[in-house]
C-alpha cells in the first residue's frame, strides 16, 4: 500500500464533511482514523478524550474484527457498534482504508447515525479517491515530489533525541 | 505505512517490538514511557491478561519533536509473544515502518528466539514486506542474567542482515533508548530515500 499523503485542500474537505456529519447526526464526536491507527481528522468535543489512544484502539478493534470476518469467510464486517450506558460508538469502514468513528449519546439514535454516516461515507470516499490519484500522479512524476525529508541530516535526527 | 499530513505538518511512523514470549517487549515500552517527559508522550495502553501477559498489543505514542518543520510522532507497538497469538501478531504488523526484534539472552530461550524470528519473517511477507528491506534493529535483552549466552553466539544465530545490534537490560533501561534511537533513525532515513 502506498504511503498516505494528505494535502491542505482535501484535508479541509474532510474536516468539513466531519463537521457536517457531527451536526447532522447530533453526535458528540466524529473522527477519522486510518487502518493503522493514525488519526486523520476529528470534530466535536474532544476535550478530555485521549484521541491518540482512541485511534489506536479503534484500529485494533477493526483489525481484530476483520480477522474474525476472514475466519468465517466474510470479506469484512463494515459496521461495528458498541452500546454503552451513556455513550455509544459507531464504527464504519470507508473506501476500505479509513475508519469513521461516531460517538453519540441519547440525544441521537443509532438509526439517525447510520443514515448520516452513509451519506458522509460516500462523500469521504470521493475525497479519498482524489487523494490516492493525486499521490499516484505525484509519485509517477519522478523527482518532482519534494519530500520534506529529502534533506534531513544525521544531526536533525540526533537532535530529536538530545533531551 | 508512514502517514505524512502536509496540512497539519505532521508525520506519523509505526514501530513494532517483536520477539518471543517474556523477552521484555512490554518492559522496553514501559521504560520508555517512564523516562519520557509528560509532554512528549501519550498514554501507555496495555491490552494484557490478568497475569500481565500481552493479549493483543501495548501502544505508546511518542512525540519526538520537529524535523524540517514537521512534527515527528512515533507510535510504538508490541506484539503478544506467545506462539498461539499469531493471528494478533499479523494484524499488528500491518502498516509497520520499523521493527525492533527483542531477543531473550537466556540459553534456554534460544530456540524460541529463532522460532519467533522466523515467524516475524513469515508474517512480514504475508503483509507484503521483506525483512531485508524494512528498517530493522536487533536487541539482546536480559544481558544481566547469569544464564545469558555470549553476545557473539547470539549474533551468530540471530543476525539477519547485519542490522544494528544492542545489548540491553530493559528492566533497568540499559540499551533501551539506544535501540529506539537506532530504529527511529533508520525509519527517518528510509523516508529520505522516498
Core attributes:
heterodimer, A: 163 residues, alpha+beta, Beta-Lactamase, five-stranded antiparallel sheet, B: 194 residues, Rossmann fold, eight-stranded mixed sheet, 5 helices
What Rg of chain A, in angstroms, do the CA atoms define? Answer: 18 Å
- What is the CATH homologous superfamily assignment of chain B? P-loop containing nucleotide triphosphate hydrolases
Assigned CATH class of chain A: Alpha Beta
| Fourth-level CATH superfamily of chain A | Dynein light chain 2a, cytoplasmic
Q: The CATH topology of chain A is what?
A: Beta-Lactamase
**Judging by the overall fold, what is the CATH architecture of chain B?**
3-Layer(aba) Sandwich
The portion of residues assigned to helices of chain B is: 25-40%
Stretches of chain B where pLDDT is under 50 for at least 5 consecutive residues are: none
- Count of domains of chain A: 1
Radius of gyration of chain B (CA) equals: 16 Å
**Helix fraction of chain A?**
40-55%
Distance between the amino and carboxyl termini of chain A = 35 Å
Could you say which structural class the secondary elements and strand pairing of chain B correspond to?
Answer: alpha/beta
Which word captures the global form of chain A?
globular
Trace the largest sheet of chain A across and list its strands: 3-2-6-5-4
What summary fits the major beta sheet of chain A?
Answer: 5 strands, antiparallel
How does CATH name the architecture of chain A? 2-Layer Sandwich
Separation, N- and C-terminal Cα atoms of chain B: 12 Å
What does the largest sheet of chain B look like? 8 strands, mixed
Amino acid at each position: 500500500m502506498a504511503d498516505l499523503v494528505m494535502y491542505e485542500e482535501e484535508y479541509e474537505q474532510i474536516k468539513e464533511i466531519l463537521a457536517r456529519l457531527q451536526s447532522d447526526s447530533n453526535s458528540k464526536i466524529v473522527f477519522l482514523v486510518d487502518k493503522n491507527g493514525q488519526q486523520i481528522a476529528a470534530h466535536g468535543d474532544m476535550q478530555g478524550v485521549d484521541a491518540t489512544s482512541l485511534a489506536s484502539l479503534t484500529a485494533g478493534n477493526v483489525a481484530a474484527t476483520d480477522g474474525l470476518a476472514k475466519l468465517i469467510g466474510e470479506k469484512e464486517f463494515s459496521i461495528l457498534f458498541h452500546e454503552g450506558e451513556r455513550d455509544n460508538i459507531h464504527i464504519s469502514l470507508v473506501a476500505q482504508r479509513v475508519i469513521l468513528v461516531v460517538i453519540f449519546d441519547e440525544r441521537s439514535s443509532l438509526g439517525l447515525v447510520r443514515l448520516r454516516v452513509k451519506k458522509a461515507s460516500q462523500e469521504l470516499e470521493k475525497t479519498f479517491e482524489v487523494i490516492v490519484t493525486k499521490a499516484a500522479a505525484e509519485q509517477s512524476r519522478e523527482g518532482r515530489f519534494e519530500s520534506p525529508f529529502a534533506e534531513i541530516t544525521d544531526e536533525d535526527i540526533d537532535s530529536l533525541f538530545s533531551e | 505505512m508512514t502517514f505524512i499530513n502536509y496540512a497539519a505538518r505532521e508525520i506519523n511512523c509505526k514501530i513494532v517490538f517483536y520477539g518471543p514470549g517474556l523477552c521484555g517487549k512490554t518492559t522496553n515500552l514501559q521504560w520508555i514511557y517512564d523516562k519520557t517527559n509528560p509532554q512528549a508522550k501519550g498514554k501507555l495502553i496495555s491490552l494484557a491478561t490478568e497475569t500481565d501477559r500481552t493479549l493483543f498489543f501495548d501502544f505508546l505514542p511518542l512525540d519526538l519533536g520537529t524535523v524540517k518543520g514537521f512534527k515527528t510522532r512515533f507510535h510504538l507497538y508490541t506484539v503478544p509473544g506467545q506462539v498461539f497469538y499469531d493471528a494478533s501478531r499479523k494484524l499488528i504488523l500491518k502498516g509497520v515502518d520499523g521493527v525492533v526484534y527483542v531477543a531473550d539472552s537466556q540459553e534456554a530461550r534460544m530456540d524460541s528466539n529463532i522460532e519467533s524470528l522466523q515467524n516475524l519473517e513469515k508474517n512480514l511477507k504475508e503483509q507484503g514486506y521483506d525483512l531485508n528491506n524494512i528498517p530493522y534493529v536487533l536487541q539482546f535483552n536480559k544481558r544481566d542474567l547469569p544464564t545469558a549466552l555470549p553476545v557473539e553466539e547470539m549474533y551468530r544465530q540471530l543476525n539477519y542482515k547485519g542490522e544494528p545490534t544492542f545489548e540491553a537490560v530493559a528492566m533497568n533501561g540499559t540499551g533501551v533508548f539506544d535501540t529506539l534511537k537506532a530504529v527511529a533513525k533508520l525509519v527517518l532515513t528510509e523516508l529520505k530515500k522516498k
